[in-house]
Structures are given as C-alpha cells and as structure tokens.
Amino acid sequence: MRASILYRISSVLILLFAIGHTLGFRQTDPSWGVDQTLAALKQTIFLINGFHRTYYGFYVGSGLFVTVFMLFTVVVTWQLGRLPAATLAQLPWLTWGLALSYAGALVISLRYFFMVQVIFSAAIFLCLATAAVAARRQS
Q1: In angstroms, how far is the first alpha carbon of the chain from the final one?
Q2: Cα gap 61→116, rounded to integer Å
Q3: What is the DSSP string of 74-110?
Q4: What is the distance between the alpha carbons of residues 91 and 87, in angstroms, rounded to a whole number?
Q5: Which end of the chain is more exposed for a tag (fewer CB within 10 A), N or C?
Q6: Is 121 helix (H, G, I), strand (E, B) or coil?
C-alpha cells in the first residue's frame, strides 16, 4: 500500500480518536461511584501562580490540551499524505517520530485506559509505521 493512502487513513483515524476523546473524557457513569470524588475535585479551589484553579479544571484543561495536539497531528498526517515518497524518505525523524509517539500512546492506553483507546492507538501506530516503511521502499 502507498504511504500517501496510509497517511490519509491515519489522519481520519486520529480525527475520529480526537472527536471521541473530546466527547468522552468528561463522561461518567453513576454506577462507577465517583460522584463524590468528582464533586470534591470540582469544589477544591486553590491559588497557583496567581490563578484560582481546581483539580477538575486541571483534568479538563489537560484533556483539551491533548485534543489540540491530536488535531494538529490530523493536519500533519494529512499533509504527509500529499508528499511524494521521495520527500517522505528524507523526513525519517518526522515520519518515525510520529509513529513512535503513537506507539507511546498505545503503551499508555494499555496501562491506563480502555479498549477503544488501545484499538485506535494500535491502528494509528500500525498505519504510521507502515507508511514510514512504505515511503522508504517507494523512494
């Protein structure tokens, strides 16, 4: 398979992952029994570097921060899909760095998250790694 197609597939997968992440990371189920904990995180206000913040605010901010970078990788992978294989072969730090970042996401997902995150991280890593290999072979 051509690298350009694999980068486009990766881009769509990352976009779906980002949408799911953004819509889902603040969702809770009452059966989890975390309502009191969440209330405490939302109500505990402290002053840090001149700003009043809560632990829940840090959680939400961190989640949205992740979304921003996922959306950036959507753009990067889409643009990589537009490049000729010869150009991609000259960018191994970018192509393999991107693939390895999703390998890291896979490891983190296996340790801390759920099957949906594991599946998306694995699929994206495999597409990106295969694209990096395909670009080298095609050039």
Answers
A1: 14
A2: 22
A3: HHHHHHHTTS-HHHHHT-HHHHHHHHHHHHHHHHHHH
A4: 7
A5: N
A6: helix
Q: What is the pLDDT along the chain (139 residues), one digit of tens a residue?
A: 799 999 999 999 999 999 999 999 888 888 888 889 999 999 999 898 999 999 999 999 999 999 999 999 999 999 999 999 889 989 999 999 999 999 999 999 999 999 999 999 999 999 999 999 998 887 6
Q: What angle do CA 17, 68, 5 make, to 5 degrees?
A: 50
**CA distance linking residue 137 with residue 139, whole number of Å:** 6
Length of the chain (residues): 139
Full-prediction pTM beyond 0.85? yes
Considering Cα of 82, then 86, then 87, then 88, what sign does the dihedral take? positive
- Copy the structure tokens of residue 60: 């939400």
Residues 8/81, Cβ–Cβ less than 8 Å: yes
Note whether 11 and 74 are within 8 A (CB): yes
> Within 10 Å of residue 123's Cβ, how many Cβ atoms?
18
CA distance 118 to 109: 5
| Eight-state DSSP code of residue 133 | H
